[in-house]
């Protein structure tokens, strides 16, 4: 990585977060202008870690400048494809193997859980939400399951970024009534002589 890129990433992140570079240097007890001088000299690793912690980003996001944007882009794309109805989310049932995230969230306290999943190629995206009756959403997480035989992996992203996707999924799943389909189901059941 070029030293110029690191300094540009730090300045960009400061701008995005509304942080003044000089104020950050003072707070971290760096000499004034030190970060700008990193274009000419190599910074020590401990100073890079301090900057990452101060900006509340991963080292990868600080060094590459891409990690956080890619996470947001991924969620935005999931939202867009859900809104366009190009991907379909389904509610998990109690016997469904995807109930693992629900059980993990339920351990937090006595919560109601909502879990939905979306198949993509051979894997699944799983959105698990723990609801407190009085306070609303307690926790929301996105899990990735590349293979049904494996344990879901929690996708590291701030839960607040998942709320619009959760709301859209709930709107699409829970509030679309199929009265004709319901009537056909009852008729089919009533006419079934095998029962």
Describe the structure.
The chain has 195 residues and is of the alpha+beta class. The chain folds into 2 domains: 63 residues, Orthogonal Bundle (434 Repressor (Amino-terminal Domain)); 100 residues, no CATH class. The chain has 9 helices and 5 strands, in the order ααααααβαββββαα. The chain has a 5-stranded antiparallel β-sheet with strand order 1-2-3-4-5. α6 runs parallel beside α8. The longest helix is centred in the middle third of the chain and has 17 residues.
Q: Brief overview, please?
A:
The chain is an alpha+beta fold. The protein is built from nine helices and five strands, in the order H-H-H-H-H-H-E-H-E-E-E-E-H-H. The protein has helices at residues 3-17, 21-27, 34-37, 45-55, 59-64, 67-83, 100-106, 163-174, 179-191, and strands spanning 90-91, 112-120, 123-132, 136-145, 153-155.
Low-pLDDT segments, ≥5 res: 94-100
Number of structurally distinct domains: 2
Strand percentage lies at 15-25%
Average pLDDT score: 79
Helix fraction, binned, reads 40-55%
Q: Strand pairing plus helix content: what structural class?
A: alpha+beta
The overall strand count is 5
Number of contiguous helices: 9
How are the strands ordered across the major sheet?
Answer: 1-2-3-4-5
Q: Please give the largest β-sheet.
A: 5 strands, antiparallel
What is the radius of gyration computed over CA atoms, rounded to a whole number of angstroms? 23 Å
Helix/strand order, N-terminal first:
HHHHHHEHEEEEHH
Spatial separation of the terminal alpha carbons = 69 Å
Overall geometry comes to elongated
